[in-house]
Specification:
homodimer; 492 residues; alpha/beta; ten-stranded mixed sheet; 19 helices; 11% strand; globular
Chain lengths: 492, 492
Amino acid sequence: MAQELDFETQIFEKEIIEVAGTKEAIVRGGRHLLPLLPQALEGISQIGVIGWGSQGPAQAQNLRDSLAGSDIKVAVGLREGSSSFAAAREAGFSEDDGTLGEMFDIVRASDFVIVLISDAAMAEHYREIFDNLRDGATLGLSHGFLLGHLQNVGDTFPENVNVVAVCPKGMGPSVRALYVQGAEVNGAGINASFAIQQDVNGKATDHALAWSVGLGSPYTFQTTMESEYRSDIFGERGILLGGVHGLVEALYRKYKDEGATPEDAFRRSAEAVTGPISKTISHHGILGVYEQLDDAGKEVFKRAYDASYLPMKAVLQEIYDEVRSGNEIRSVVVAGERLEKYPMSTIDQTEMWHVGEQVRAARVEDEIPLDPFTAGAYVATMMAQIDVLDEAGHPLSEIVNESVIEATDSLNPYMHARGIAYMVDNCSITARLGSRKWAPRFDYAMVQESFPALDAQQSETGPSASFEGHRIHGVLDTVGQMRPSVDIFVAS
Amino acid sequence: MAQELDFETQIFEKEIIEVAGTKEAIVRGGRHLLPLLPQALEGISQIGVIGWGSQGPAQAQNLRDSLAGSDIKVAVGLREGSSSFAAAREAGFSEDDGTLGEMFDIVRASDFVIVLISDAAMAEHYREIFDNLRDGATLGLSHGFLLGHLQNVGDTFPENVNVVAVCPKGMGPSVRALYVQGAEVNGAGINASFAIQQDVNGKATDHALAWSVGLGSPYTFQTTMESEYRSDIFGERGILLGGVHGLVEALYRKYKDEGATPEDAFRRSAEAVTGPISKTISHHGILGVYEQLDDAGKEVFKRAYDASYLPMKAVLQEIYDEVRSGNEIRSVVVAGERLEKYPMSTIDQTEMWHVGEQVRAARVEDEIPLDPFTAGAYVATMMAQIDVLDEAGHPLSEIVNESVIEATDSLNPYMHARGIAYMVDNCSITARLGSRKWAPRFDYAMVQESFPALDAQQSETGPSASFEGHRIHGVLDTVGQMRPSVDIFVAS
């Protein structure tokens, strides 16, 4: 069962939405709310954004733009000698006006410190960051990773600060791109969750909400920091990245083995997922994929779904268990030393991704097939992920954002432009390690279990029998309406 | 650097062997030493062997046979209602003469309690076992898993008992089969390591050595319980099981993609490894494989070796890190609940293993090719495993047993008879979970890194340049001479 959460805000309008019989309290965003930010950030004269990786550039710029004209300064802090100083300067931050500096200087000079450094750096430097926080400051994180690490090593946050999280359900470049596009379509953006871990002065909630609205989140829903890191680390190992990668590898080989040309096999697997299937889900929901198939296609979809759902769910449950036990976080931390000696290789040198480059170069978008088998396998994996999170009691908004909207509105469009392999090779270390660990497991589960099961007897009680009536479709419908439908623009 | 270990025995003859400039103290076995066992087991009137899985039947029967005619009784303890009572009775143990009973009854009635239950059962029941041990008893384990689990959960062994380990470097059926064959060839058997974790009465070492000699170990070398569980859990995820599985999956597809028939692809991959390559290593060492190739074959071997060594080593180092951090043991423990809901599927339903069945049925042993590419990739993986263990400081005897002899003398012959997939599907839960987790990683590393690297420039400084001069060949030579060369008999 989903956990019951609620919050109070003095500044923003809290709405209660009812999803699948469960009430969730949320806050809608929009540019018309930006004038409220200074009031919601009362007591804060400087926001320090630490780090310039994926989220750093997006969040620092969005916050600066959203707070333009107010008295609140947004400053970027980087580690001494970081090569990112140049990029930050190019984005308009500068040592001269105090909006760019050494990270611990910025930490000490800020009342609200948003730490967006890599997970490995977080594990290494958190103690020094804690020690440099002002008394009564607000510590902001965009990911619960640090909480998981503190639990693993038996440490805690300092008691004299607010600790809040605002976690955009999309990667940094999407957070920036949709914010920029949002100048024309009010409310376009990446949804975010927020969590209050510590509130020492009663202002933590409004600080967090102001941060989220300032980033351009169409709507902000509540979670806990623990629930957030579990679903986030799980989701990127699942359908968002590792799952989709393993799945298309297995499907590509299957179609080739059945006689398809490499190009057709690529179109029917990777292209179908990141193109028409993803776009259809984004605009018409998960059910929309099924509904737009003809009768023969619906049969193929169901066969693929029935054969894929359970094997995929078993892998997903294993991932969830590994995240919950702390193992995945511990893996990322212990990998640091190894990666210096054995840097991660890229995954894009295989035949499949070379073929993919050519296919993308010659792409005619409207001719990409919505392959019904691929659709059934992909949707089954997505539904299995939804069910694993649901059974673990995550908030429904978190579930649809981590399993559906982040895929269709943020990651899949990037993969469509540059390739799934490119995405895997260019995401955070945490996501990359996880994706490399789990993608082959999805692949093997498809090949060892799903494909052999295709010849088995179909029955009315297969997993697909409960697909059309699943409560998540209504949830996605409600949640989906809270963001304007904007196809994100990604340069290839 | 290898850790320095030494021990004192009152009963057996300690020998110092020099391997690669390092001295190791060992004890050779043999049937002529069986009369020494009662003296070495002074103070023990009953040995309780708990569990009837892989090691249980082998060790209980070997010890009973070795102690026949002495006053020491060997009794088997099983959990109430276990379906294994019938099998234990069939092997000659019986409730009537007190050599078979409920496990905790047997624990309480024994002075030497050898616990051979599954790792998951160990994690669940260890506290109750500890509580039922006699004061001053000797607790025997054939695996350091429990120590790793205690470290993870912050618990310890009881202080009033000896804690020793004797760990045969082969699965139970091999321990029994070679012991039986040893009636004709004195000293045939599976090597074992031993470790003294606690010695409360000065008798722990001789108890352990008596146990090992009683099992029929040709030679027994020393390790620590921590070193043992690391190398053991690592090894089965590596070349012994997970590594060999992932490797042949990748090679099979490669040969097929290059135009080989499925049957030929299977012969050149799985059959070549478990047949001629393994047998050559067993009789002529790792170098023997290379030396028996012609010049063209040697070139192919080196190309495969150079392309495979580093990618395989990176995966192996990741496995080692996961074992050392406690993650792998924690994974096995948390899997318990999940496996009730999602039982492990078998991996043998893919085309490759169906082809394999037919190939084995029609096999002409002498016609199996010693494919030089497969040999180079397999040997590179084996050498990479050796180097990871060596860099982590494991005793050299442990390294060659966990990386070479256990493969060639125990596991590969079983795989050759029944298939690698059969072996994966029928080993311990711990090995099976690990093999399913890591095999696909070896596969992906081969496909993503090794195969693309084949076209890259060869250089004199590739990993193969240091292959022929590697110090492990001398170690294997010394160690290999301490067991009579007996090809194990395995019914298909």
